[in-house]
């Protein structure tokens, strides 16, 4: 009972102080999800207040979503998904900045490529060639699985013709891929596992499906599989969502040893692996070899997602999903129920763009450019922020996930301070379902800014960290 002890302040109603104290205990993890709160009479006696004060405190907790009641049993703690709540707030803040104003900001928030690297004239000629070749068919012909030519092209160029194209489905980007897979295989109260931290869009999709979400900590070589197996022993898991390369937000890639073990666990415990292959084209370190989980999938347990949008052109929403024997039909039906078909013109244009070798040229050019920016930004962060942060070295991708040292400004305040100085960072809390007290991160992406802009931005971040020390 000691953790419920309060030194009451005279100017705030006691029931509010009790409620706030319990909420803080829940957020800090000192009260677990679904833990029963003390009986009303017992807590009233312990705090020397009347029982009506405790009743009002518990009612306040319930109205704020921090507790729930079971008839005849008592009141139980309910942890709010603080990360998802703040993610919505964060998005609203950025939307309030007009497009004209945004040009005056140093933007470390986005992971889309700089559009200056996209060969607009080349792509315009590709579109014209497609229209001349296919005439009205580019606008009226729709295939539920996607344009067959593009699916065959993907199989040939990226999978050495080893994939059954009947399992390959064109989608409107990775987010839609996650959504239609979830609709196809995940039902209410199914158990899903994600990495901690992870891409907030995936958490939102699983939450919308009303799945039970388990978070597994991520280590320097990927998901903690010992922790995963302990959960597998006690719970029936439907799917594990993972980013095998340059995980968003940490930048961590899964080791070969862990990939093999994860596939073995999927077979042993009968769950699906949803592999989001994120920015694996942008490998900067020769020590990092590319082997997707799907290419190693001997048990047909991996559902693969790949987006072209991040690297091709953000406004052109294209990607693909490769299902398994048991899931492909359900995934296709889910796609049809979502939007019937993805743009036929854009699919045909991407197909021709890849076949003519432009995709390979673009990726090679981007890898060279972003490798340089990656190395320069790492130097700048080390020089300017080295005394205040720990950095995960990703060896690829387009961002750094940075841990603020103990007793420094928290990520939310740092974001607000930097925003006032026209520097945009991504607070780490949006990548966690629930936030622990010692988790204090922010992400810096380098897709759009020049070296000098990045140098200026990092200097401003350092200044705000120094001003905001606790």
Automatic annotation (TrEMBL):
Keywords: Aminotransferase, DNA-binding, Pyridoxal phosphate, Transcription, Transcription regulation, Transferase. It holds the Pfam family Aminotran_1_2. It comes from the Bacteria. Residues 12-80 form the HTH gntR-type domain. GO terms for molecular function: DNA binding; DNA-binding transcription factor activity; pyridoxal phosphate binding; transaminase activity. InterPro entries: Aminotransferase_I/II_large, HTH_trans_reg/aminotransferase, PyrdxlP-dep_Trfase, PyrdxlP-dep_Trfase_major, PyrdxlP-dep_Trfase_small, Tscrpt_reg_HTH_GntR, WH-like_DNA-bd_sf, WH_DNA-bd_sf. Coiled coil: none annotated. The keyword Nucleotide-binding does not apply. PROSITE patterns: HTH_GNTR. PANTHER family: HTH-TYPE TRANSCRIPTIONAL REGULATORY PROTEIN GABR. In the C-terminal section; belongs to the class-I pyridoxal-phosphate-dependent aminotransferase family. This is PLP-dependent aminotransferase family protein. It comes from Oceanirhabdus seepicola.
